Structures are given as structure tokens and as C-alpha cells.
Amino acid sequence: MTAPAPVLRVRNLVKEYGEGDARVRALRGVSLDVERGDYVAIMGASGSGKSTLMNILGCLDVPSSGTYLIDGADVGRLDEHQLAILRNRRVGFVFQSFNLIPRMSALANVELPLVYGGVGQAERRSRALAALDQVGLTDRVHHEPNQLSGGQQQRVAVARALVTAPALLLADEPTGNLDTASTRDVLEILDRLSESGRTIVLITHEDDVAAHAERVIRLVDGEIVEDRRQSPVDGLPPRAAASEPV
Ligand SMILES: Nc1ncnc2c1ncn2[C@@H]1O[C@H](COP(=O)(O)OP(=O)(O)OP(=O)(O)O)[C@@H](O)[C@H]1O
Ligand SMILES: [Mg+2]
Fold first, then answer.
1. Signal peptide: which range, if any (predicted)?
2. Which of 33-37, 87-91, 122-126, 127-131 has the lowest mean pLDDT?
3. Hey, whose CA ends up nearest to atom 18 of ligand 1?
4. pLDDT-derived band at 237, boundaries 50, 70, 90
């Protein structure tokens, strides 16, 4: 029997933007594997290449050279149609700026990836409701984004990312626009998802966010300079203890 393919297998990724004097090498040969169930934080200063890497991993952009496999599929060898399917079914995204569709309910936003995936209406509805339940928003399903707090909007975005049961959850600074309490809510949800076996790759430049992950990868100028495992902080304190003043 062969071992299951890692969720991500990345080899020598290089990304260059621009031409001539304006050329920027945003990634200079990045290699890494991410196994199923791993919770990885990618850290690095502004401009170190974090979003560039995430956009490539999420099939939103293509590398200048190098290879990467998602769930065993060699992304560079897929045609547009296969790539669209991979993006829709295997990867869930959470962005710093939520990226919800305005004037559509939370429920409709979460159903959207299933609409693109061709899932029928009844199943769409029940899966979207279950995803919203997972992020604690059953009482807000008919609210539109501008009727929700930032933290609630980000929880809708997490539900939308999860609703397709993706192999990989990618989050680029998911708490970057949130206050302390909402940050804690979102991190708690990610902790719970990690405990239930989801594979998560999160980008952050905050140490206390990265502390929730099991593995920390540090980028400097488009290169991995550190890749270490750590014991994540206990992200799920008893509710009573969490709300006590410190
Ligand atoms: N579309 C683009 N065209 C040209 N250069 C780009 C483009 N996108 C990113 N870059 C450059 O590539 C480098 C890496 O950018 P990237 O957005 O990946 O950084 P980052 O680590 O996500 O930073 P931040 O923490 O500020 O979000 C930077 O020098 C940036 O200026
Ligand atoms: Mg970025």
C-alpha cells in the first residue's frame, strides 16, 4: 500500500513579478509538505511573500517555476476546467477583508460555492445551515453582511470556506481586521476545526495568532528560513475562565 499523498507538496516554487528593472522575486524556491490534519502558520514581515505563496497554493495565481500538488493532483498539469473544480472542491479561503457578497444573506453567501459546484437546492440549504451552525451563527443566517459585526462576517466567511468540505483551509490574515474579542472567536473556531482533523494553513504576522498552530513556517524575502513544530496554546479554555477579567 502507498502512503496517502500529503494535502500539499510544494517543490521549488519561484514567483517573479514584473520585468527588467521592475522585476521582483517574491518567492525564491519554496519547498514544503503539509500533511492531512496539520495546522500551519506562515509568518513573515510585510512583503516577505506570504500572500504570493497563499495565492499560488489556492490556485488563484500561477508560479513562474516549480511544482505543487494538492491532494496528489499536480496543479501545473491541470487545464482551466480541472483547476476550477479543484479550487471549488479542495480549497477553502478566508481573507482578511471577509470578501462576502453585499446584499446577499449570510446563508446565500455560504451556499454560493455549492451553487458553483452544482449542488441541488435542498442539499445546498442544509449544508450551508450546518456550516453556519459550526461557526455559531444559526441566529444570523438571514442577515446581510452590513448587518453583521466584523467578527460575525468573518465567521460567515469561515462557514463559506468550509461548506464544500475542502481538503485544505487557507486563511490570509483572517484576524487582521478584527478586534480582540472577535479574533478570539475566530481562532477558537479554527482550533476546533483543527481538532476535528481539518488541514489549515494560516498566514499571520502576529505571534499570538501563530501560537494556535502546530507548526510555524517563517518567510524572509521569499525564502523559508524556519520550519518548526510547537505545542499550540490551549485555544479552548473553559468559557467561564475565558470571560474572567485578567
Ligand atoms: N501583483 C504584483 N505585482 C508586482 N509585485 C508584487 C505583486 N504582488 C506582490 N508583489 C511584490 O511581491 C513581494 C511579496 O508580496 P506579498 O503580497 O506576497 O507579501 P506579504 O508577505 O503578503 O506582505 P503583507 O504582510 O504586507 O501582506 C512584495 O515585494 C510585493 O511588493
Ligand atoms: Mg499579504
1. none
2. 87-91
3. 49
4. low
CA nearest to 110, candidates 96, 120, 124, 91? 124
Q: Considering only CA atoms, which of 86, 163, 155 is closest in space to residue 124? A: 163
CB-defined site of ligand 1, < 6 Å: 17-18, 24, 26, 44, 46-52, 205
Q: Where are the alpha helices (DSSP H) in the chain?
A: 50-57, 80-90, 106-116, 121-134, 150-162, 180-195, 207-210, 239-243
CA-to-CA separations, 15 to 51, 53, 231, 232, 242, in angstroms, rounded: 11, 9, 32, 31, 42
Nearest CA to ligand 1 atom 31: 47
Sign of CA dihedral 54, 85, 3, 211: positive
87-113 average pLDDT score: 95
The CATH homologous superfamily for domain 8-229 is: P-loop containing nucleotide triphosphate hydrolases (3.40.50.300)
- CA angle 51/53/54 to nearest 5° reads 65
